[in-house]
Design brief:
The chain is 39% helix and 14% strand. The protein is built from twelve helices and twelve strands. The longest helix has 36 residues. It is α/β, with parallel strands linked by helices. It folds into two domains: 130 residues, Aspartate Aminotransferase, domain 1 (Alpha-Beta Complex); 239 residues, Aspartate Aminotransferase, domain 2. The strands form three sheets. The protein has a seven-stranded mixed β-sheet with strand order 2-8-7-6-5-3-4, sandwiched between helices. Bound molecules: pyridoxal-5'-phosphate.
């Protein structure tokens, strides 16, 4: 059998935890009811599974179960919420403030709204990937309907100051939406403390199944916007359609496991990353991007001067790592995030993103260091 590469791309997606798969299984076999079938036991069983999952997902972020809307993933949650907020008013009178280092899901959604007449401000970032809070406040106008700033960046792992951003927005009665796909389950999270009005995240980034996500909407701030999926009136009419019960049940279990394991995992992966960055930092012409900013413990974004990362990755056959963002890696352009923090094309195109996770071992990290050092040396040695 072919030996699989060492998986170091946990920011792209994570394997389903075996304990998650175990709780999902019965919902494919004997508990196959539709959660909306309120007349019989099959429906009640499915509904029970969804209710428990709502509580587990909500508990992980300090929300109430009634504040969670299940979707097919972060991209769906983002589009539903941002478009919903704008469509509830007049799109042409809607101004949204976002940031240049957002994931394409937010950037492209804003581009589409701009084509329909909305006004979009895309804030720049400093060399750490963080927005300037004074600039944010200056950008607010009478027509600002939403501030959409991500929590942890998917390429760098750096964390924006969401609490401070929310405080500025709320001073002007503007809701805050945050794409927290990379941070939920990885750091302690309390939506009340962060004071966000809405938040999006995906199950597959935290050891749950793919194709399931959540949109948290703070009940008190009441920023539901217009319903984006018309149909049978599911999820309070906001998101109609039969629920993906096995996926939702798995998502709930995955959240519960993160709740239990997050603290230990952060410490362990932080140690692994320190080793990785110390070792690779010894190579000449290496820059660790975002290193001085507050960032997630399991992510490392490393530029190798005068090295084309796609050639490097081709040599690293035993490793599964990412060049720039996984979601845009079919396009060979320097990453918009690395360009935004001021990297030259050379350093941006020479960057690897290594993201560790629950099943990463120290032996794997050591093997990755060895393989990267060897590949860099090979690319730099005269032919
Ligand atoms: N936002 C961020 C920060 C991400 O990292 C991703 C996926 O990589 C997404 C949004 C899109 O998530 P999904 O593909 O689950 O919809």
């Amino acid at each position: 059998m072919i030996k699989k590469p060492i998986y170091l791309d946990y920011n792209a997606t994570t394997p389903v935890d075996p304990q998650v798969l175990e709780v999902m299984w019965p919902y494919f076999t004997e508990k196959y009811g539709n959660a909306a079938s309120i007349q019989h036991m099959f429906g009640w069983e499915a509904e029970e599974g969804v209710d428990l999952a709502s509580t587990e997902v909500a508990d992980l972020i300090g929300a109430k179960s009634g504040e969670i809307i299940f979707t097919s993933g972060t991209t769906a949650s983002i589009n539903m919420f941002i478009e919903g907020v704008c469509s509830a008013q007049s799109i042409t009178e809607s101004h949204i403030i976002t940031c240049v280092t957002e994931h394409k899901a937010v950037l492209d959604c804003c581009d589409e709204l701009e084509k329909k007449g909305a006004t979009i401000t895309r804030l720049g970032v400093d060399s750490f990937g963080l927005i300037d809070l004074a600039e944010l406040e200056e950008a607010i106008t009478d027509e600002t309907r939403l501030i959409a700033i991500m929590h942890a960046n998917n390429e760098l792992g750096v964390l924006q100051s969401i609490r401070e951003i929310a405080a500025i927005g709320h001073k002007f009665n503007i809701p805050i939406f945050s794409d927290a796909t990379q941070s939920v389950g990885k750091i302690p999270m309390d939506v009340r403390e962060l004071n966000v009005d809405a938040m999006a995240f995906s199950s597959h980034k935290l050891y749950g199944p793919k194709g399931v996500g959540a949109l948290y909407i703070n009940k008190k701030s009441n920023r539901m916007g217009a319903p984006m999926m018309a149909g049978g009136g599911h999820a309070g009419g906001f998101r109609s359609g039969t629920l993906n019960v096995p996926g939702i049940v798995g998502f709930g279990k995955a959240c519960q496991l993160c709740q239990d394991q997050q603290e230990e995992e952060t410490l362990r992966l932080g140690e692994f990353r320190a080793y990785l960055e110390n070792e690779l930092g010894e190579i000449e012409g290496v820059t660790i991007n975002g290193k001085k900013a507050p960032r997630l413990a399991h992510v490392s974004n490393i530029s190798f001067r005068n090295i084309d990362a796609s050639r490097l990755i081709r040599l690293l056959k035993g490793l599964a790592v990412s060049q720039g963002s996984a979601c845009t890696s079919s396009v060979m352009e320097p990453s918009h995030v690395l360009k935004a923090i001021g990297l030259s094309d050379d350093l941006a195109l020479g960057a690897l993103r290594i993201s560790l996770g629950r099943f990463t071992t120290m032996d794997e990290v050591k093997e990755a260091v060895r393989a990267i050092k060897e590949a860099v040396e090979q690319l730099r040695s005269p032919a």
